[in-house]
Amino acid sequence: MSSSEIQKTRVINELRGFIKKLLQDPRILEQSLLIARERLGEGDQAEVMARIANEISETTSVHIPEDPAEHSEADRLFLELLKEVVREEQALY
Fold first, then answer.
1. Helices of type H across 1-93
2. Residues 21/61, Cβ–Cβ less than 8 Å
3. What is each CA distance from 6 to 10, 12, 72, 73, in whole angstroms?
4. Which long-range contacts (CB under 8 A, 24 or more apart) does 7-12 make?
5. CB-based burial of residue 79 (10 Å sphere; 0-12 exposed, 13-18 middle, 19+ buried)?
6. What residues have CB less than 8 Å from 65, skipping those under 6 apart?
């Protein structure tokens, strides 16, 4: 197995575990979106995304490392998707 395949497998497994967590506790999505809605637009994007990640970790069973440099591919993907969903909501209004 190549390193690229190993990386893809690791990301898929991490996403699979995350999706399982969401299915077990749907409030995670609701809480995460609420946090993202409140924080997006508060200045420096990197700093805001770090604050969003920290608040999600503090208020849900999802753990995202405090340091953005330690975020996994799945962490980054989840945060980006949150941002996209909130931006799309805002564009509708």
1. 3-24, 27-39, 45-59, 73-92
2. yes
3. 6, 10, 14, 13
4. 7/73, 11/72, 11/73, 11/74
5. buried
6. 53, 71, 75
> Please, what is the average pLDDT of the chain?
90
% pLDDT > 90, the chain: 60
Distance CA 40, CA 81 (A): 13
Distance CA 54, CA 72 (A): 14
Q: Which pair of tokens denotes residue 20?
A: 């399982």
Q: Which two tokens stand for residue 62?
A: 């999802």
Q: Please give the structure tokens belonging to residue 61.
A: 């069973």
**What distance in Å separates the CA atoms of residue 74 and residue 64, rounded to the nearest whole number?**
10
pTM for the complete prediction? 0.84
